[in-house]
Amino acid sequence: MASSKLRKTPRIPRKKRKAVRYRKVGFKLTEGQKQALDRYCKTQNLTPVRFIKSLINSHVSRHRNDPPPSYATENQLDLFSSGEVVNID
Fold first, then answer.
1. What share of the chain is helix, strand, coil (3-state, %, to 5)?
2. What pLDDT sits at residue 3?
3. pLDDT digits (tens, 9 = 90+) for 62-87
4. Contacts (Cβ under 8 Å, ≥6 apart) of 51
5. Distance separating alpha carbons of residues 21 and 2, to the nearest angstrom
6. Residue closest to 37 by CA, chosen among 53, 50, 48
7. Which of 20, 35, 81, 82 has the most CB atoms around it within 10 Å of its CB?
């Protein structure tokens, strides 16, 4: 008897994974740069796209977890910290 046919508990469906959004980026290389890139990729057994992505990831990885900039100044934060009520007439 197969154990999969004797399953008593119902299967829980998996949650769908969040789709990854991709953006196109384009740039130009000189002929010499392209030849050097092709030669390097051939010797290292890489594709040019994988090589370029690895370079970008190594440079960008230290900036991924930076907190977003705060646009509130100290004066704006002090407005609400005191318990005083100001009447403007």
1. 45, 0, 55
2. 57
3. 777 777 777 766 666 555 566 565 56
4. 37, 40, 41, 44
5. 42
6. 48
7. 35
pLDDT beneath 70: ranges in the chain: 1-7, 72-89
Helix axes 48-60, 31-44, angle to 10 degrees: 90
**In contact, 38 and 31? CB cutoff 8 Å:** no
Q: Which residue has the tokens 């030669």?
A: 39
CB 41 within 8 A of CB 51: yes
Tokens of 17: 């994974």
